[in-house]
TrEMBL record:
UniProt-recorded Gene Ontology molecular function terms: DNA ligase (NAD+) activity; metal ion binding
Gene Ontology CC entries for this record: cytosol
A Pfam family that the UniProt record links to this protein: DNA_ligase_aden
Key words of the record: DNA damage, DNA repair, DNA replication, Ligase, Magnesium, Manganese, Metal-binding, NAD, Zinc
UniProt name for this protein: DNA ligase
Length: 668
């Protein structure tokens, strides 16, 4: 392909991908399947690698991330990002309205009402229609430059459409949609980790991740609500919002212009319950004077504008009776106590159960069966018990003793030092753990055997046909056909799905194994670093923690997992069945032979390149990347936060340690 052909092809692919992105994230319309979209995106990425001069800053390939940022630079805002005064009282809003009226000396005025989203305030700058900078609110005067992470937000335009100013700043609220948050917590729980507390804090932590590829997987979104700049020819907040919409920004359609404070109250009342239908959490309403000229006239206090105020809804809670406490056993053996409640209406839904998290929480609340308890939803997805109405407690109610044995198999529970959760250690014999392990194995993000489901897993287990994932690959037609509800076509579909799963990539297989604390992202990091299951199984603690994002707890869990003879036998059975237990290396483009016969270990975090980029560059120049340090190793490429043990071992063996810049010099 010539350069001219590549340039045309890249432009056409970019246009298509941008269109499909806009339809999906802005208009909730899927014009192509995920598979077709991924093919287009991967084709674009490959072309941009071959012709980097056409990898423009506004390319949709930047949505997937991959940039590693060691430190976020501090950026001063051109105009401060001030906070708003808050109130929970409609009387305070009437006082605010009187102050506005007095400050405008009798002029007529209008308000714009917007929902107050529970997210992270962002400032984004555009020059000549291209996103050039994304910055957090910080302390209001200055924030962190997180441009690479902001580019992964699919609804954030990388290039604007229509008529736009030469340079301007837009402000908005980044957030994690409820659905994404729920999925993320399901994955956390599936690998034996505590779920995240709320979507806002999770979104905040996501935006400060060093690896923008990891941020991309968090599927953040953003609503824009303000426009700043010179010579914008805009006279009101309403015009600013409409201008943002016309340029392609994601603006929440929930805003409304109100002619007086009574209409503001109507808006507040309308959204008090309706807001629960939205895809994100909200905690109130923002009321602003619409006219920019009148905003200037009203001015600011030292902390907030006099022309705007936030009305906050009270956190929704209700009192109800605690009927009992039940205990759930998860796939990893983690025990979760659940409060069984008299049904109560809360945040638009009937709540019958609420999380109690662990034994510490039960003790802290001093819960007793029969108590009147307070249940709150607020910013949480799952209702939780927040307190006890002690005035309603009667003398006969007794303190609770946390269970000592597994409610499913009777095995004595254990509690790992430093952890709040109790576990059932009977991994091979506890029914919920066995069935949970198989359910985890077949899920879409793992082996993707969609012809199986929880009911089928239950039938297979009860009929003693399947007690581990490897058993699935030994099922016959007769085994499945004799199950309740199965006929010829449904039986063949299950067998076909199991057979197709043998083509699933190693990264997904590793996640499917269900090693505690090894989620999807960690599995991808491990697979990319070690290349196959055998290298992971024999890896030392030191080698494991050298992998980015692998800490002491994860390394310990991996080693413990493969110390088990049952787990090692399971791997061998999967291998025999034909499951992918190594990465299928793609063909590498050769750029030079400058590193031929040279071996490298990469460790730490780098400023210019991601680790995968460095590996690919080494291979493109004839070198080989290995996972461990030995006397035969030629170079250790050392980044920031490299483990001291690795450096010490390299120095002891006389291995040459080089920096990122020194590596650059070798290939250039």
């Amino acid at each position: 392909m010539t350069k001219e052909e590549a340039q045309i092809e890249i432009a056409e692919l970019s246009k298509k991908i941008n269109h499909y992105n806009e339809q999906y994230y802005m208009n909730d319309t899927s014009e192509v399947s995920d598979y077709e979209f991924d093919i287009l995106l991967n084709k674009l990425i490959e072309l941009e690698k071959q012709f980097p001069e056409y990898n423009y800053p506004d390319s949709p390939s930047h949505r997937v991330g991959g940039t590693i940022t060691k430190e976020f630079n501090t950026v001063f805002h051109k105009t401060p990002m001030l906070s708003l005064g808050n109130t929970y009282s409609k009387e305070d809003l009437e006082d605010f309205d009187r102050r506005v009226s007095k400050g405008l000396e009798g002029e007529s005025y209008e308000y714009i009402c917007e929902l107050k989203f529970d997210g992270i305030a962002l400032s984004v700058t555009y020059e000549n229609g291209v996103l050039t900078r994304g910055v957090t609110r910080g302390d209001g005067a200055k924030g962190d430059d997180i441009t690479h992470n902001v580019k992964t937000i699919r609804s954030m335009p990388l290039r604007l459409k229509g008529d736009y100013p030469a340079e301007f700043e837009a402000r908005g609220e980044a957030f994690m949609p409820k659905k994404v948050f729920e999925e993320l917590n399901k994955e956390k729980e599936s690998v034996g980790e505590e779920p995240y507390a709320n979507a806002r804090n999770t979104a905040s932590g996501s935006l400060k991740m060093q690896d923008s590829a990891a941020v991309a997987k968090r599927k953040l979104d953003c609503y824009l609500y303000a426009l700043n700049g010179d010579n914008l020819n805009i006279n009101s907040h309403e015009e600013a919002i409409q201008k943002l919409e016309s340029m392609g920004f994601n603006v929440s359609p929930t805003y409304k212009k109100c002619t007086d404070i009574d209409e503001v109250f109507q808006y507040i009342n309308e959204w008090e319950t309706k807001r629960h239908e939205l895809p994100l959490e909200t905690d109130g309403i923002v009321i602003k004077v619409n006219s920019f000229e009148q905003q200037q006239q009203l001015g600011f206090t030292s902390k907030s504008p006099r022309w705007a105020i936030a009305y906050k809804y009270k956190a929704e809670n209700a009192a109800t009776r605690l009927k009992s406490i039940t205990y759930q056993v998860g796939r990893t053996g983690a025990i979760t106590p659940v409060a069984e409640l008299d049904p109560v209406l809360l945040a638009g839904t009937t709540v019958k159960r609420a999380s109690l998290h662990n034994a510490n929480e039960i003790q802290r609340l001093d819960l007793r069966v029969g108590d009147m308890v307070f249940v709150e939803k607020g910013g949480e997805i799952i209702p939780k018990v927040t307190g006890v109405d002690l005035t309603a407690r009667t003398p006969e109610l007794q303190p609770l003793d946390y269970i000592k044995n597994c409610p499913e198999c009777g095995t004595e529970l254990i509690r790992i030092e430093g952890e709040a959760v109790h576990y059932c250690p009977n991994a091979q014999g506890c029914p919920p753990q066995i069935k949970g392990r198989i359910a985890h194995f077949i899920q879409r993000k793992a082996m993707d055997i969609d012809s199986l489901g929880e009911r089928t897993i239950h039938l297979l287990y009860e009929n003693e046909l399947v007690k581990s994932p490897a058993d699935l690959y030994e099922l016959t037609y007769d085994d499945i056909f004799q199950l309740e509800g199965f006929k010829d076509q449904s039986t063949k579909k299950v067998l076909k799905g199991i057979e197709a799963s043998k083509e699933i990539s190693f990264e997904s297989v590793l996640f499917a194994l269900g090693i505690r604390y090894v989620g999807k992202t960690v599995a991808e990091k491990l697979a990319g670093y070690f290349k196959n299951i055998d290298n992971i199984m024999k890896a030392s603690h030191e080698e494991l923690i050298a992998v980015p994002e692998i800490g002491e707890r994860i390394a310990g869990s991996i080693i413990t997992n493969f110390e088990s003879e049952e787990n090692r036998e399971e791997i061998e059975r999967l291998r025999k069945a034909g499951v992918q237990l190594e990465i299928i290396e793609k063909e590498t483009t050769t750029l030079s032979d400058s590193l031929t016969d040279k071996t490298f270990v990469i460790s730490g975090v780098f400023t210019k390149y991601g680790r995968d980029e460095l590996k690919e560059m080494i291979q493109q120049h004839g070198g080989k990347v290995v996972s461990s340090i030995s006397g035969k190793l030629n170079y250790l490429v050392a980044g920031d936060k490299m483990g001291p043990a690795k450096r010490e071992k390299a120095e002891k063996l006389g291995v040459q340690i080089i920096s990122e810049d020194e590596f650059d010099a070798m290939i250039k």
